[in-house]
Amino acid sequence: MPSPTPGSGSDWLLVDGSSLIFRAFYGVPRSVRSPSGELVNAVRGFLETLARLVSSRNPGHIAVAGDEDWRPAWRVALLPAYKAHRTDEPVPPELEPQMPVIDEFLEAIGVDTGGVADYEAEDVIATWTSKIDGTVAIASGDRDLFALVEDPRVVVLYPERSGLATIDEAEITRRYGVPGRTYGDFAMLRGDPSDGLPGLRGVGATSAAQLIRKHGGVAGFLRDGSLSDADRAYLESAMRVVPPVADLDIAVPAGRRDAYPADARRLAALTAAHGVQVAAEHLVHALSSSLAAL
């Protein structure tokens, strides 16, 4: 069976790989080790999470985006506080050696990946989303990607304690009191410590929502509102930093194999070396079942 053409209208699952890897690392016990004693908790947790996502969404295509740069210099130049917490320890030492192992598993299983130098996973996902004609579900714990929500085509699958929340425009409005496509503006005005966004002094969630409803967003507020020079400079910089970049020079991957795994011999060697055979088998089964459902 020939592989469908990217952007042909089939549903897509786009995965923020870095977000899921970190959640796996902190969510799976450190007792999960390879036969040689190396920590593989993030490897197992990531494969299991991806398998559950594929089983629940049954996508026609899937691709995983990675951070080629955790804190791009061009963003920091515009907004020095941007994700400043990442300078202390961008990747925990126990996680760092697991990340290339995850890449090896994805390649052997047949899951397409992508990244671009000097950009984050959110930018890759935004670019792919802009080039895909079909519906898109984005799996990520990064609220920056709420800016891509577009009814009825794009939703974000956001992990919470109760499970995955499906974030559409109505859910953004319910949670934040702003129009569904203006979450990025809301974050700039209110601030977001996780991204190093200071927000405007004296502006909290309620007043940020009011400003958006009154002015339509940050652009309208800059045009019509009364701001200090410092606040204006901050918002002008934030408008260039916060929105995910959607026009990178990167193609949409095929997102689909004729059969899984792509390299059975290599996958067998990886599972033998790292001891995560069950998790890998679950992902292969989920992908094969999704293929059969097309």
What is the CATH superfamily label of the largest domain? Answer: 5'-nuclease
Task: Provide the succession of SSEs.
Answer: EHHEHHEHEEEHHHHHHH
- Head-to-tail CA distance between termini: 11 Å
**Largest sheet, strands/sense/barrel:** 6 strands, mixed
Compute the number of strand runs: 6
How helix-rich are the residues, as a percent range? 40-55%
- Please tell me the total number of domains: 2
Structural class: alpha/beta
Summed up, the helix count is 12
Q: How large a portion of the residues is in β-strands, by DSSP E?
A: 5-15%
Please state the second-level CATH architecture of the largest domain.
3-Layer(aba) Sandwich
Return the CATH topology of the largest domain.
Answer: Rossmann fold
Radius of gyration: 20 Å
Widest β-sheet, arrangement of strands: 3-2-1-4-5-6
How would you describe this structure to a colleague?
This protein has 294 residues and is an alpha/beta fold. The protein has two domains: 12-172 and 245-288, 5'-nuclease (Rossmann fold); 173-241, DNA polymerase, domain 1, CATH 1.10.150.20. Helices cover 45% and strands 10% of the residues. It is built from twelve helices and six strands. The protein has helices at 17-27, 41-57, 73-78, 98-109, 121-131, 169-176, 183-190, 205-215, 218-224, 229-241, 264-274, 277-293, and strands at 12-16, 61-65, 112-114, 136-139, 154-160, 163-167. Strands 3-2-1-4-5-6 form a six-stranded mixed β-sheet, with helices on both faces. Strand 5 (154-160) and strand 6 form a beta hairpin. Helix 2 packs parallel to helix 4, helix 2 (41-57) packs parallel to helix 12 (277-293) and helix 8 (205-215) crosses helix 9. The model is unreliable at 1-9 (pLDDT under 50).
